[in-house]
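Q: What would this chain look like folded?
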Amino acid sequence: MTGFVLKLARQSGGLTQERLAEHLAVDGSTVQGWESGRRPLSAMPAGDFVRLCSRLSRLGAPSSTGRHLRAAVEADLVLSTGIASADRWVDPEVHPLAASVHRKTLTNLITWPFTGYLPQELEIFEPKVPRRGPVASGPTMGATERIRFFDHLMTVAEQGVRADEALLRRQAVYLLGFDQRHHVAEWLRGEWSSAGRRPIADGDVTSLLEARSASVALASIGDGSHLHDFVIRANGTRADLANLNYWAHWIGELPDDQTDDTFMAEDDSRAWSGVRLFHHLVSRLDPGSPHLPLNLHTVHTLVASRPALLSTSPDARSALARALEMIASANVLTRDGRDQVAGLHYALRLADR
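A: My prediction, written as structure tokens:
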């Protein structure tokens, strides 16, 4: 990830590899090695890495280049740990999946080789140099490396059963949703059978997130029935609050990093406004999305908890109205989904008064 992000930053500054090498007083082969991954930037001394990030911005790359490169280093650490370990267990004390609760920006980088989609955050890197012949549109991973990475996630998910391994296990289960192998799908269905059907006690964040991760992962591989079940069971319980807090962290509305999941049970959610989350979710009310039931349910809960999102913003009302019209006309909603759409239409009428 780091090498490809460096390449995007260089091109956005209008620099060739040779020109960047001149500015940095290094050999052209050094820049080539950084971008290809033969010389990982994660192995660079910290001070040199910081200076490289700031130099790129001064040479014309976006000012946020350093932030994106640091996230790419973290994504590479997750991927390289899985590939190197394969079916071996790695202790949570040193495993990067157990270091913090991931946000969307990091997860999109980790899954980039599997989805093929450029993370939205990297769209700021607009190339200003001509490309020479056919070029890759994103980082790639060989078949053997993919198998080793996903085999490691299975090992983590199967063996991480202790309380202090919950974060490591949950984030591994989520990433398994990007594995397309049949036996992984069957394992995820078994995970839902054990985690998704247990009653979710108030304040039991671990059980809630085990059920959520399993149902989201299954939806990602085309089995969306369990996500419907999860939404029904979470509706009207404290699980709704935990779901909102999780989304707020995921989208970046919560300013602090989180090293475990306990923050999701916090009653006071006034630390975040919901504006960014609202626009993110509304843009994902897509009839074709495998995660539509969860996205719609979360929008419904968010608007109910923060009616000012609609009453103070005509643009927000218009965006939501368009999205609701699109999904209502697609004939993809369950009875609960139709009820949530009706509730949101009512909220729009109240906000228009």
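The chain has a mean pLDDT of 91.
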